[in-house]
Here is the input.
Amino acid sequence: MFFGFNSHPAIRKAITNPHKFADFFLLPACIHGIDFIYRSTCNICAQPSGFIVFNSFFSSLTSRNGEREDFYDSNDGAKKFRQTDFGDGECKINSFDEIEGDGEGEGSDSDNDDSDFMVLNSINRNNDQNEGVRRIEIEEEEFRHPLVREICRLIGLRSTWNPKLEGDLRRLLRSLKPPQVCAVLQSQDDERVALKFFYWADRQWRYRHNPIVYYVMLEVLSKTKLCQGARRVLRLMARRGIECQPEAFAYVMVAYSRAGKLRNAMQILTVMQKAGIEPNLFICNTAIHVLVMANKLEKALRFLERMKLIGITPNIFTYNCLIKGYCAVHQVDDAMELIAEMPFKGCSPDKVSYYTVMGFLSKDKRIKEVKDLIEKMMKDSKLFPDQVTYNTLIHMLSKHGHADEAVEFLREAEERGFQVDKVGHSAIVDSFCKQGKIEQAKTIVNEMFTKGCSPDVVTYTAVVNGLCKVGQVEEAKKMLQQMYKHGYKPNTVSYTALLNGLCRNGKSLEAREMMNISEEDWWTPNAITYSVVMHGLRREGKLSESWDVVREMLRKGFFPTPVEINLLIKSLCWEGKTVDAKIFMEECLKWGCAVNAVNFTTVIHGFCQNDDIDTALSLLDDMYLNNKHPDAVTYTTIINALGKKGRIEEATEFTMLMLEKGLDPTPVTYRTVIHRYCQIGRVEDLLILLDKMLSRKKCRTAYNQVIEKLCSFGKLEAADKLLGKVLRTASRIDANTCHVLMESYLSKGIPLSSYRVAVRMFNRNLIPDLKLCEKVSKKLTLEGKTEEADNLMLRFVERGNTLPYGPHNLQSL
Here is the structure.
């Protein structure tokens, strides 16, 4: 495992029981001269519980989610933690009412529920208007520092980790300054790796994270969906006695928002209140941003009103968030009205306000309205379009595939004396290439030469990508050579675009060869490059070569996504190589890839298709061992395989286990269970099981499926007994089920039973199919049952249906 736990018993005890080993957690008064977050001792001790009071919240939230704290044990609320750095007093962890557990954001949050930000009612109405934003800017030279680069190199070797490498990393860590630690965290392509390094470093002897490291770690996690990691970092800050500013909570709030957990994101405000920290303008703006991103515009507007009531005055960022929210729900008129009202609210709109609306209009190709908005911006706000304005419009239109309109603004900008740079031109070229308009793209490139705005690597790469999209791979190769002639060196993106073109044109082996000699051409493949070649080989059926690419990818420290893993696993299973698929998945787990339940389910399905049920069940156990929870699809796959083998009792056990675990049966689950039980004729057992399944998740057509499936197996008597369950509601689906039963009776030569089904339909105000009833009537007549035949036809006449023959002909049927 990456960054193994230090084996020294004293250190392990100190970490797991910090309240007993406070001396291990001494924090120097000044680390490397960095003074970022610390305040005076008196201010910190004024709120002794403010730093660790939300331990109880996070502990309760963890227990409700069923998650295990991977790196730190939760403290008991009755124990005392000695804040050695800030005084000799003891701080007791305060408890407070448990906050509602994890919600799923959209599904668990009501637009009319303002309970999430009732905390605003209780704060000081004379709140400081300053946002209090503390931006952490790491100098570029820190990223190029030899120590930083060496540590990043060692982290990249995590797949071959050993005690020697860990010792080297530990020695380098003690020489790092806090900004350099931050640079290491921000240099990681995978945020999960950054988080693991953060935890590993925090466990090392005679090393302690500077407060700025915590804030940088939170900032890194706020750009991902790793909300649980952000929560744990914030919780660790509380344990370490580090002052938590609203910015720290804002980062956690954004992480929850990105994970789709709006309710938890808004609960951060309550956590702040319990910690004794009052919200400021920054955290309020973050809350509005989170609500807008979740399409909760009405709630964001109510939040704004609550802000004003407590004395927090919104600023330009607040209003720009709301303008974006209006545009997201296509209320552009309301956005324009807000822009018009902003000067009266003491906050004049800026160009970003107008650019937001222009972006929405550009997306819908409403060019005339964009031009009108520019005039309005000049007239009402005295904001005149400049080069930035035109560059923004060109980029917006190009991004949404409106290259022709972008060219119009390019010409207009040049007429007004503005010089659009190569970035704007490259955006237009890229848009043309994505549309397959290569000639128009080449025209713009030629214009760049005449204007003295030479194309760069980005421009050439866009053309290479466009040529590959239209199948002109050889022309794309020549374009790479032209880059060298004009003094530009193709980069990884350029070669990846070419490799993608080769793979899509059935030349994956050639792409693989180009990647093998990448060092000779002085470029380095990245994760996307490997992914492109892997998919190309997979599509051509070269699974062995594709597997080799993934292995090389893992050795280089790149992780395939669960989707990519699943595609290769599925391809192996399709060819019957389920054992290879299992081995491949196990290797991905060994290397630390994000293998998920879908990947396990795909392999399980492969073994079930090969009738190897025991191996499939073994893999189900492995899922639990790897903390991958099976879903309804996994259980359905197992249930179907067991039913197919006649092991119906075991299939029933797994169905009940799925229900006990709170998983809702899917439509496929219903079809699978019904098919297997009807196949062996165990209708009574099926009905008992269906009642339990329906109590968990309703299925309108469950009994319809049972009747139709019994008919397909020729068990008409059992199907007829269940007919009353579908005739309770007169719907077209029920009518179709009755027709299936009627046709089954006819095929068995029992028209009288088919007639009785039709009569029951009439009694429930369901009109049977006329042509089908004609067949029944003719069969009844042939068997001498003319009274039933005439009665069936008269039922149609009574309901106003016109028969293909007159009523006087009924006796002749």
About this structure: Residues 1-108, 127-133, 806-813 have pLDDT under 50 and may be disordered.
